[in-house]
Design a protein that fits this description.
alpha/beta, globular, Rossmann fold
């Protein structure tokens, strides 16, 4: 996707404010911190508009935005509210009431379990899944599986940051769009 001049300026502002923390959470990892960028209110507004414009242009007919625990929630609610569509959280095990679907997935540092409320996505509903970061692709893959278990259709996975050297997209069978890519992390 090519960005118009205003979105390119928004993207560059966001890029300029991403924090980096070497050797976190363990030696050899250069952690990219989106929360550092969000300390600036202009970056918050720019990021919201950047993501919203992308979704409206490329996925105007979706029924819901799915946000991953926890940073994906920041984006999913804002986009859903602006588009007046549903917002569905995918959470870590034990955080959602009612009947849930579950999927275990691999992380860079171990395994975890994601859950979604079984009735949150209706069969045939079209969604985009959003999160802050794509690394190994484990959490996005699990989210895609959960939506499919509920009968939903995942149109795309959207992330703000992608660590390309880890090549997490190879684990996904749904298109991925990332706003910022880091080659050597």
């Amino acid at each position: 996707m090519s960005f118009d001049q205003i979105d390119l300026e928004r993207l560059n502002l966001l890029k300029s404010k991403i924090g980096e923390y070497p050797d976190f959470p363990k030696k050899g990892i250069n952690f990219k911190d989106i929360f550092t960028a969000f300390r600036d209110g202009k970056v918050c507004a720019a990021t919201k508009n950047l993501v919203l414009n992308y979704v409206k242009k490329n996925h105007p007919n979706i029924d819901a935005v799915v946000g991953l625990d926890a940073r994906g929630f920041l984006f999913s609610f804002l986009i859903a509210a602006e588009m007046e569509i549903g917002c569905v959280p995918i959470r870590k095990k034990g955080k959602l009431p009612g009947k849930t679907e579950k999927v275990e997935y691999n992380l860079e540092y171990g395994t975890d379990i994601f859950e979604v409320q079984s009735d949150s996505i209706k069969p045939g509903q079209k969604v985009v899944i959003i999160d802050d970061l794509l690394a190994t692709g484990g959490s996005l893959k699990a989210a895609n599986e959960l939506i499919k278990k509920c009968g939903g259709i995942v149109e795309a996975n959207i992330v703000i940051l992608e660590l390309r050297s880890i090549n997490g997209r190879k684990n996904l069978d749904v298109p991925v769009f990332s706003f910022i890519q880091y080659a050597d992390e």
